[in-house]
Amino acid sequence: MQLPDSAQRVADLLQSIGHDKPVVMLPDTGKTSAEAAAGLGCDIAAIAKSIVFRRLSDDAAVMIVASGANRVDEHKVAAIVGPLGRADAKFVKQRIGYAIGGVCPIGHLEKTVMLIDEDLMRLDSLWAAAGHPHAVFNLTPQQLLNMTGAPLADVALRVETRVE
């Protein structure tokens, strides 16, 4: 099966770094963590979603790779990298090189500030977008760290519950 150009770019990059897992095309979209998990038959936590922000001080792209089960706490991220703004689809495509819904954690057009959600380290296997809304690839949390060189961080939004 012929991969779309953006997914083929990721497949070529994965092969060049010796990654042993192929890019997989989902029959339905994997734009959201829930859609990807449903298509793969895995837990939503195993989806390594890429969220992109714009750092206000220098307009740099900031990518958080988080568990699909987590919401990203922008305040925690800003405390680490500086004040953040919204990254629209045009910004993401120009700076990262992928369309929203298929943003891969590797192969960016520009140097990207990155943080990896520490909760991903609890899992044995992850699925990340491979440059296209239908394309994903399998990897371990350690492989994600090795491929990106990004530090682990507590970026998940924690909802505190109080017992009265």
Give the overall average pLDDT. Answer: 94
- H/I helix tally: 5
- Given helix and strand content, the structural type is alpha/beta
> Into which percent range does the helicity of residues fall?
25-40%
DSSP, total strands: 8
Distance between the termini: 57 Å
Order of helices and strands: HEHEEHEHEEEHE
Largest sheet: 8 strands, mixed
| Radius of gyration based on Cα positions | 15 Å
Sequence stretches where pLDDT stays below 50 over 5 or more residues: none
The general outline is: globular
Strand content: 15-25%
List keywords for this structure.
alpha/beta, single chain, 8 strands, 164 residues, 8-stranded mixed β-sheet, globular, 5 helices
Give a short summary of the structure.
The chain has helices spanning 5-16, 33-40, 74-81, 89-95, 141-148, and strands at residues 23-25, 47-55, 61-67, 84-86, 113-117, 126-129, 135-139, 152-153. The protein has 5 helices and 8 strands; from the N terminus they run αβαββαβαβββαβ.
